[in-house]
Amino acid sequence: MFKGKGDLVKFRCSIYEKKLLKVKAKRSGLTLSEYIRRSLFEKEITERFTDEHIKLYKMLIKYHNNFKSIGNMYRKRNPKLSETVYDLANEIKTHLKKFQ
User: Fold this and answer.
1) pLDDT at position 37, please?
2) Given this model, what pLDDT does residue 12 score?
3) How remote is the C-alpha of 17 from its chain's centroid?
4) What sign does the CA torsion over 74, 80, 86, 92 have?
5) What is residue 66's DSSP assignment?
6) What is the mean pLDDT of each successive set of 10 residues along the chain, which is 100 residues long?
7) DSSP secondary structure letter of residue 49
8) First-to-last CA distance in the chain?
9) Closest CA relative to residue 34, chosen from 5, 58, 55, 75
10) How far apart are CA 96 and CA 100, in angstroms?
11) CA distance 27 to 20
C-alpha cells in the first residue's frame, strides 16, 4: 500500500514571499511543496532552461567552435593571432560552464 506524504505543515509568509516561491518553483519545474521541501533539506534545485536560454547556449557553442577553427587555421602562419583567438574561445567556454 502506498504510504505517501500525509502530514501537513503550514507556515506564514507575506504575499510577496509566496509569489516568489511560486515563481521559483515553476522555473525549476517542481510543485511549490516539493520546492520548499528541497530547499529546506538543502537538496539540489536546478532551474529549467527557457527557450531563449537554450537558443543563447547553442549560439555560444557555435561561436566557441568557430573560434577554435579559426585558431587552428592560423596556428602555423600567425601564432600570436591563434593564441588570442584560443583565449577568446576559452572565455566563451567559461561562460558556457556558468550557464550549466
Assistant:
1) 87
2) 93
3) 23
4) negative
5) H
6) 75 93 88 88 76 85 90 86 89 81
7) P
8) 39
9) 5
10) 7
11) 11
CA distance 79 to 84: 9
- pLDDT for position 3: 67
Question: Whole-angstrom Cα distance, residue 62 to residue 70?
Answer: 12
CA-CA distance, 49 to 53, in Å (whole number)? 6
Tell me which residue has cell 532551474.
47
Give the total residue count for the chain.
100
Other residues' Cβ atoms within 10 Å of the Cβ of residue 6:
5
Q: 3-state DSSP helix/strand/coil percent for the chain, to nearest 5?
A: 65, 0, 35
